Amino acid sequence: MSPLKRLVVAAAAAASTACAAQPQAPAADPVPAAEAADVGADRAPFSSTYAPEPSLPTLIRGATVLTGTGTRIDGGDVLIVGGKVQSVGTALPAPEGARIVEANGRWVTPGLIDVHSHMGVYASPGTDALDDGNESTDPVTSNVWAEHSVWPQDPGFEAALQGGVTSMQILPGSANLIGGRGVTIKLVPATTYQAMKFPGAPHGLKMACGENPKRVYGGDDQFPSTRMGNVAGYRQAFADAQGYMEDWKEFDAERAKYEKDLAEGDEDATPPKPPKRDLKLETLAEVMRGNILVHNHCYRADEMATMLDIAKEFGYRIAAFHHGVESYKLADRLAAEGVCGALWADWWGFKMEAYDGIQENLALVDFPQGGCSIVHSDSEEGIQRLNQEAAKAMTRGRLAGLDIPPERAIRWVTANPAKSLGILDQTGTLEAGKMGDVVVWNGTPFSVYALADLVFVDGVLLYDRAHPAPKPRSDFQL
């Protein structure tokens, strides 16, 4: 980052605060806000400009390491070089000039990942002015993108980072049948959402079934007002998108013929007119092509089964059911079809469709061969303790007779969410070549006393509990 950019970021941070905090000991590796280098005019609109800051080689040694792959290493080391995990093992040599973190028995995990957040689109403080999560003007708003509502100065981002979260998916709300595209970000300080946007992560599509859409649109004779109306709404939207794809397929064939005629010297060849671009149908077409991953808010097992049938009808795949308090009832089917359950440890009973929840839900969904459980938050407060939510679910599973060691449960907040977001090839586990998104905990993360001591994002130390960076506090940070 240029000195000018550093100055601008610092000035912006100061302008949004009431008073500066008292000076404190600097972090081992003071880091300015993560902003990308200048980008050229050929950058695709809205694409990521995130680029990691330079970082010191870092060797964390003498830790209990949970790799996120199902492996536990006692007395283990993690070496981060050039922002990437270089190696994980024991007795690793330190490169020249490396920062050494003596873990002394502390625990190390990959950075936590939350697949369901509305941070930035329902930013703090909770005012109407920052209420940007639901475009509830129509049951189908697949044309909207959550990222276009994200406010990077939401103080909740910093609180989540301090809870060990290094990446998250920000979704539209659940008012709509199809609420729009979600975005995956990295928790780095920035002045634009593009500078937080996870490079190469596919978009998600937020869909919602059950009570929410029929409640939002059911008054004043609006459609839909019933669950059967919900289903008709999803099916019609995707049927329309199929027609849109056929129109473009026909245009592509006509254009190919036109170009062939030109090449053969036909001076009377007439270029075809393309179909009108439709942003709603464009998103749904990309879902059916497999380029956008579906994240489906759904509570009841019968409705999840219906949504799986709709996905089969239109040839797309559901990455995860979110909330899913009845997921345990069809755990085998979810595992067989490769669908994750993004679940709470114990939230239930707050509306009719959430009444049949059980605290063993996460463990039961995870246990079939191919099962994929995820602990998610849907909460600016709960995101600060995803590890403790996983601990609750692990305990309930053990009481039900399921063997869930820490090296398995840690996947619920690391590897499994990365899988559902399409970023497991880049993060979610501590393996050579992956991003240096790493948390050093003061002890086992599965404890009510667990605190993140150090949080690295791409090898950059962004949070040091013992040495908080001296900086002004947000007016909205209480």
Written account of the structure:
- The chain has 478 residues and is an alpha/beta fold.
- Helix content is 26%, strand content 21%.
- It is built from eleven helices and 18 strands.
- The strands form three sheets. Strands 2, 3, 4, 5, 6, 15, 16 and 17 form an eight-stranded mixed β-sheet that branches. An eight-stranded mixed β-sheet has the order 7-8-9-10-11-12-13-14, with helices on both faces.
- A hairpin with a 5-residue loop joins strand 2 and strand 3.
- Helix 4 packs across helix 5 and helix 4 runs parallel beside helix 6.
- The longest helix has 37 residues.
- The N terminus is likely disordered.
The secondary structure category is alpha/beta
Number of alpha- plus pi-helical segments: 11
Q: Taking Cα atoms only, what radius of gyration do you get, to the nearest Å?
A: 24 Å
Amino-to-carboxy terminus distance? 30 Å
Characterize the largest beta sheet: strand count, sense, and whether it forms a barrel: 8 strands, mixed
Strand content is 15-25%
**Average pLDDT across residues?**
91
Binned, the helix content reads 25-40%
Along the chain, the helix and strand elements come as: HEEEEEEEHEEEHHHEHEHEHEHHHEEEE
Unreliable runs: 1-38
Shape: globular
Number of strands: 18
